[in-house]
Design brief:
Elements (H helix, E strand, L loop, with lengths): L25 E5 L5 H17 L5 E5 L7 H4 L5 E6 L6 H17 L4 E4 L7 H13 L9 E7 L5 H14 L6 E6 L7 H10 L4 E6 L6 H13 L3 E2 L7 H16 L7
Parallel strand pairs: 1-2, 1-3, 3-4, 5-6, 5-7, 7-8
Helix pairs in contact: 1-8, 4-8, 6-7
Length: 263
Amino acid sequence: MRHSPVIPDRGSVPLAGGTAPGRVPLVAVAHGSRDPRAAATVAALLDRVRLERPDVPVRVAYLDHCAPALGQALTGLDEAVVLPLLLTEAYHSRVDLPAALNEVRARHPRLRVHYGTTLGPHPLLRTALERRLAGAGVPAGDPDTAVVLVSAGSSDARANAVVSGMARRWRRSGWWSVSAAYASAADPSPAEAVSALLRSGAPRVAVAPYLLAPGYFADKVRQATLEAGAEVVADVLGPAPELVGVLLERYEAAQRRPVPIAG
């Protein structure tokens, strides 16, 4: 008889005896939000990871607004894989998270950390975006639909360039067009991108939020783009199965080729 895997507690309670035998614990670090929907989404994603890989101890940490902080999540461990639950490599993954890690390692010099890359970019994330659009009634590659790919936006031009590159590659899948837009810190805004596509003659415009969880940005994007004339706004990525696959791929890769911790 096959038994359902036991889902460990999500908190920062140390594992008995430090690192569990067999698998290095995974500590997933999210940005954090005052909106409780964001933490609930992260919890749902990590629960799916636990179900997929019950042999891997999984913990969560947050950079801001929520507990536990990274130091609390690493308590009791002598080795861990630390993965940023971030969709683009920007300030948080390049500066904030490495600085927090260095602070923890200064207090616990014997702690061995394998630092992984951000979730994006990854081909499976486009599949997840298409899953969310399909859930909103938009078939993948619909030639009568122009898509606005909306990220949170960053003051780091390299992060924004990654999103615009994703849009260019996605455009080849048959869509009328795919354009990048940014909810903050960069242009065009999501509403501007929708308006520009409609002026260009797009039969209809659908918005694909390149956002992990609901919250301020997701709500703002939905309202602004619908007012600008978008016909469809898909859900955020959330605990999509593709994200589970990406996260576990990053986990394995971090143990083979960890990213240097700077900051």
